[in-house]
Amino acid sequence: MFRSPTCVISSASAGSVSGGHAVDRYAEIGSFTKVLTGTALMRMAAAGVLAPDDPLERWLPQAPGTGITLRQLAEHTSGLPRLPPGLGLRDPYAAFDRDALTVLLGRLGRLTVRAPGAAKEYSNFGYAVLGAALEAAAGVPYEELLGTYVLAPLAVAEVAVHPSAGQRLCARGLFGRERAPWSMDGAILPAGGLWATPRAVAALVTGLLVERRLGEPAPSWQRTGELHWHNGATRDSSVFTGAMPDGRWVVIHRLRSSAARTDREGVRILLRTEPPTAASEPPPCGPSDAP
Questions:
Q1: How many CB atoms within 10 Å of residue 225?
Q2: For the residues 235-260, what does the mean pLDDT come to?
Q3: 288 vs 259: CA distance, rounded Å
Q4: Which H or E run contains 105?
């Protein structure tokens, strides 16, 4: 029987892998990327580069009069729809580059499905816009500002836009061939295009949620009761991350498996795991020695 390659790291386990997964191979993390984008927003605000409640047009003048703020984009209350218009089918984000986003910015106010701030509407499109605003404010590309404001302060190295082919862990098709991942390095990158090793994701979860090394959790995290969590899914990859106030945390990554299944397993692990002892440490996160 086919087994989904799976990696589980938690406050109770340094790492459990099956089906050919590995803690030191890069995998797609999908919408967990939003956690890093939201954290970058708050870190840039703390550094005085911008303010979370800045109107979008302050940084993207191509989108005047929308009434949307950076915080609303981060909290999914901008009123923008889940996806940008005009996506393809086979590789949906391949044509959604910066030029395509710029065209949409000019009619952003007409693309909203409700008034900004009125209600929550989970939006990949909104995070693409937020990422463009952060780039404009920082004056550097997304990957560079992410390194400066989030990854370097946490000493996390194994996060990338384009990991080398030898370091990537991709799903395989019926005859064992590696399946080509979606193209997500364009305008959609800040919403879901990053790759990371599971141990790097674990270091991010512990640094951001357990140790709070960069301050209070960013508004990009989801909340259910006391649980802070975020998941992510692409065509072939799913991840769940979460942490409780008592220090319990978990990261689950799977290839070609239902995201809902991954989420449910993550919550079950958190609920049944005893709080960690003072000696518990997150797994190391240094340069990968994978081929």
A1: 6
A2: 90
A3: 26
A4: helix 98-105
Average pLDDT over residues 57-77: 97
Residue count of the chain: 291
Half-sphere exposure of 99 (CA within 13 A, CB side): 2
Domain segments of the chain as ranges: 6-272
The pLDDT tens digits of the residues spanning 37-46 come to: 999 999 999 9
Give every CB contact of residue 109 below 8 A, 6+ residues apart in sequence: 63, 65, 66, 67
Give the residue-averaged pLDDT of 185-199: 97
Residue 1 vs residue 26, higher pLDDT: 26
Contacts of 66 (CB under 8 A, 6+ apart): 55, 56, 57, 108, 109, 112, 116
Q: Percentage helix, strand, coil, to 5, in the chain?
A: 35, 15, 50
Domain covering 6-272: architecture:
3-Layer(aba) Sandwich (3.40)
Counting beta carbons within 10 angstroms of the beta carbon of residue 179, is it exposed (0 to 12), middle (13 to 18) or buried (19 or more)?
middle
For residue 101, is pLDDT > 50?
yes
**What stretch of H or E contains 59?**
helix 56-59
pLDDT confidence tier of residue 260, bands split at 50, 70 and 90: confident
pLDDT at 291 over 60: no
pLDDT, the chain, mean: 90
Cβ contacts of 46-54, under 8 Å, gap ≥ 24? 46/215, 47/149, 49/137, 49/138, 50/134, 50/137, 52/219
| 33-46 helix and 124-138 helix, angle to the nearest 10 degrees | 40
Neighbours of 244 (CB within 10 A): 20
What pTM was estimated for this model as a whole?
A: 0.91
DSSP 14-56: EEEEETT--TTSBEE-GGGHHHHHHHHHHHHHHTTS--TT-BH
Return the structure tokens found at 50. 């911008």
How, if at all, do strands 195-196 and 222-224 pair? Answer: unpaired
